[in-house]
Amino acid sequence: MENKNYKLATKLIHAGVEPDPSTGAIMTPIYQTSTYVQAAPGDHKGYEYARTQNPTRTALQNALAAIENGKYGLCFGSGMAATDAVAKLLQPGDEVIVANDLYGGTYRIFTKVFANYGIKFHFIDMSNAENIRGYINEKTKMIWTETPTNPLLNIVDIAACGTIAKEHKLLLVVDNTFASPYLQNPLDQGADIVLHSATKYLGGHSDVVHGALIMNDAALEEKLRFIQNSCGAVPGPHDCWLVLRGIKTLHVRMQRHCENGEKIANYLRNHPKVGKVYWCGFEDHPNHDIAKKQMRGFGGMISFTLKSDRMDDAMHVLKNTQLFALAESLGGVESLIGHPASMTHGSIPREERIKNGLADSLIRLSVGIEDVDDLIADLAQAIG
Ligand SMILES: *Cc1c(COP(=O)(O)O)cnc(C)c1O
Fold first, then answer.
1. Does ligand 1 have an atom closer than 6 angstroms to the CB of 362?
2. Which of 72, 140, 159, 359 is exposed most, by the fewest CB atoms within 10 A?
3. 78 in contact with ligand 1, CB cutoff 6 A
4. What atom of ligand 1 comes closest to residue 81's alpha carbon?
């Protein structure tokens, strides 16, 4: 599908995929092969070895590029493998400015893996993008952000980060896992690389672990494709197929995630035992105006604390929901409930965690696409 002018819903279903040339199969086959037969050395159909290229992966890479309004897509075995590939663009001595409210695994790979290779990470509050300027020096190479952030649903102004990145010739990387391309397209707002844990909304069915990078710059794509092939953290064709199938319904799922999210955020906000509710759709969210400017909706990720702020009370809620399953991860059709302090963000030291606003009683919801009345009734009985 060459026509880039199609709207998202059409691209989600058609971009990157062509009927299979050998049979006409409408669904891209799962090319479960490790190698490809050559007619003579070098005389092949563009496929030599399956770490380097696989047709199922190619279809997905092209589809992901199209839905993020990018030119190139690269797929990885997980979101963390995609993060790892981007960090490998750096050299010892380089510095990166990173949003301080971010996915725990990203914090871990930067502080526990790449810091050992002489790369310095500054974790800062990016709710005002101008804060970034104070950390830029001649060694700075990259700005890394996530928006909405995990789990506090803070909003970072992508366009403002893009302006700063351009002024100082830095790469701007945006982890778009929480918003998905349905809600925002960071490349259109000045990002150089968009990262996805496709494990979440893109896959959407909690049945695959997968990561992706999307970009516009050919030289950057070449470097990252070299890392993808050299380091080898590639997904198998079956996993690519699952994501390819998942994205076909992204728009329909996201519409419902947003509707359910709004109703549940408002329900929680009026609950007498609930403390603070974090959801970027509230008009009094500190960066609601930026959210409105850069997003097309506010999504189904909500965090909240309990008025008591007691760990025990949070545990009671976590143990007593029937529909919201207690599990890590997010973005699937089924609703999940989690406790960042002991689960996704368990690798962040308590002092650092509290300093960044992740209270002991903080509960995170990934609101699924079930009937919202049933979801609200479930929360009602669990919170008590
Ligand atoms: C899950 C997640 C990741 C890591 O992705 P995996 O597929 O689990 O490796 C990175 N960023 C965000 C925001 C995530 O939610």
1. no
2. 159
3. yes
4. 9
The question of whether 175 is a catalytic residue gets the answer yes
C-alpha 78 to ligand 1 mean position (Å): 8
Ligand 1 neighbour 344 (Cβ under 6 A)? no
Task: Give the distance (Å) from ligand 1 centre to CA of residue 270.
Answer: 31
Nearest to residue 81, comparing CAs of 238, 197, 203? 197
Q: Is 175 in the pocket of ligand 1 (CB under 6 A)?
A: yes
User: Cα(210) to centroid of ligand 1, in Å?
Assistant: 9
List the one residue out of 33, 19, 6, 36 whose CA is nearest residue 240: 33
19: exposed, middle or buried (C-beta count within 10 Å: 0-12, 13-18, 19+)?
Answer: exposed
With a 6 Å cutoff on the Cβ, whether 366 touches ligand 1 is no
**201 and 177 Cβ atoms separated by less than 8 Å:** yes
- CA gap 227, 247 in Å, rounded: 25
User: What's the average pLDDT block by block, 10 residues per block, for the chain (384 residues)?
Assistant: 79 95 95 96 93 98 98 98 98 97 91 97 96 98 95 96 98 98 98 98 98 98 98 98 98 98 98 97 96 97 96 95 96 96 82 86 97 98 96
Which residue has 């896992």 as its token pair? 177
Whether the model pTM is above 0.90: yes
Our answer to whether residue 20 is catalytic in this structure is: no
The ligand 1 atom at the shortest distance from the C-alpha of residue 83 is 10
* CA–CA dist 171, 237 (Å, integer): 30
Nearest CA to ligand 1 atom 5: 79
Active site residue 200: yes
103 is an active site residue = yes
**pLDDT value of position 57:** 98
Instruction: Return the CATH architecture of domain 8-247.
Output: 3-Layer(aba) Sandwich (3.40)
**Omega of the bond prior to 151 within 30 degrees of 0, cis?**
yes
In 3D space, the residue among 203, 284, 293, 214 whose CA is nearest the CA of residue 250 turns out to be 203
Q: Residue ranges of the domains in the chain?
A: 8-247, 250-383
The yes or no reply on domain 250-383 and CATH 3.40.50.11930 is no
Identify the CA nearest to 285 among candidates 267, 258, 266.
266
